[in-house]
Specification:
CATH superfamily: NADP-dependent oxidoreductase domain
Shape: globular
Strand order of the largest sheet: 5-6-7-10-11-12-13-14
Radius of gyration: 20 Å
Number of helices: 10
Number of domains: 1
């Protein structure tokens, strides 16, 4: 049964979190919440499985790589995952490519002793060589090797949701999808899905077998999915787990380009350059009064807005430290009113216009 609490976080009493380290050994003591945490959940498409509306995104915890976020402390990563799970989040999304395997290793370490209590999603389709050069490949043989490597790094014998990370532009998506359906048939993956696919690519996959989930980018800056993908998924019973609900930090209300690491992928992104950057920051300023009148942050508003989207199952919210997790969970269960959504849409249309529905280049 789906759970919903209007003021979930308000019903909890947080006491304290302590982290102690000794000779490289990690001891995390969480004395956290006097009541059991219950986050709102939604069914993932036709799977029957209930995901919490917020999932933990493990992209940044992978550390440096071509599309990384800069250096990351592993102990903080482990503490962030612990905070999410202790706070009621029941699923984690990672990928083989994040940190070139390192995110999966950290996730596997965090789940030792509680693997069966967490819905684990990962992705394949980006590979690398011994010089850390990456390329996209969804060739079936490559996906099979990636799948086995992910099982090893995650220290598990099954994956709850295995996804194709990106189409590679060369391999027919039907060939790749056949490989994932085989993983599911063999019992190594409970469910299978795709990320960053368009509707025609989804149609090709559906001709062979059901697609359990789609993972698209979706936020107030990138609204492309609204016009075709979300209605497509709703009509076909495909669960949607949206990534970057806060536009990779732009919609937190605390974004500072001067704090980005020299190797942060965002420095090369057109969304973090003018004219898109200025529009995003202007949008944040106009959203602040709406968030503040409900006692929330702009980041919490951004996540709540995504969760109000058609066919959305869950929003994947990344975190690098426990304090970021706590900030996210403080907004869990908040639903925007119809009036708030209309006001937000009016602001978005005025600030971005059609830019919100076209990819930046």
């Amino acid at each position: 049964m789906s759970l919903y609490c209007q003021s979930w976080f308000d019903r909890l009493t947080m006491t304290y979190v302590t982290l102690s380290l000794s000779k490289g050994d990690r001891q995390l003591k969480l004395k956290h919440f006097q009541e059991a945490a219950m986050l709102p959940t939604r069914k993932l498409g036709k799977t029957g499985f209930e995901l919490t509306e917020i999932g933990f995104g493990a992209w940044a915890v992978g550390g440096p790589w071509r599309f990384g976020w800069g250096a990351q402390d592993d102990e903080e990563s482990l503490a962030a995952i612990d905070a999410a799970l202790e706070g009621g989040v029941n699923w984690i999304d990672t990928a083989a490519a994040y940190g070139l395997g390192h995110s999966e290793e950290i996730t596997g370490k965090a789940l030792r002793g509680r693997r069966d209590k967490v819905f684990l999603a990962t992705k394949g389709g980006i590979v690398w060589d011994d010089k850390r050069r990456v390329k996209f490949s969804i060739e079936p043989g490559s996906l099979r090797k990636e799948f086995e490597d992910s099982l090893r790094r995650l220290d598990t014998d099954y994956i709850d949701l295995y996804q194709i990370h990106w189409p590679d532009g060369v391999t027919p998506v039907e060939k790749a999808w056949e490989a994932l359906l085989r993983f599911k048939q063999d019992g190594k993956a409970r469910f299978v899905g795709v990320s960053n696919f368009d509707a025609p690519q989804l149609e090709k996959c559906l001709s062979l077998g059901h697609v359990d989930s789609l993972q698209p980018p979706y936020n107030l800056v990138r609204r492309n999915a609204e016009r075709e993908l979300l209605p497509f998924c709703r009509e076909r019973g495909i669960g949607v787990v949206a990534y970057s609900p806060m536009m990779s930090g732009l919609l937190t209300g605390r974004f500072d380009a001067g704090r980005l690491a020299a190797d942060d992928w965002r420095l090369a992104s057109p969304y973090f350059k003018e004219p898109r950057l200025g529009k995003s920051l202007a949008l944040v300023e106009e959203l602040k009064p709406i968030a503040e009148r409900s006692g929330k942050t702009v980041g919490q508003l951004a996540v709540a807005w995504v969760l109000g989207g058609e066919a959305i199952t869950s929003a994947i919210v990344g975190a690098r430290r426990p304090s970021q997790v706590e900030q996210t969970l403080a907004g869990a269960g908040w639903k925007l009113s119809d009036g708030d959504r209309r006001e937000i849409d009016e602001i978005s249309n005025r600030v971005f216009g059609e830019d919100a529905f076209t990819d930046a280049t």
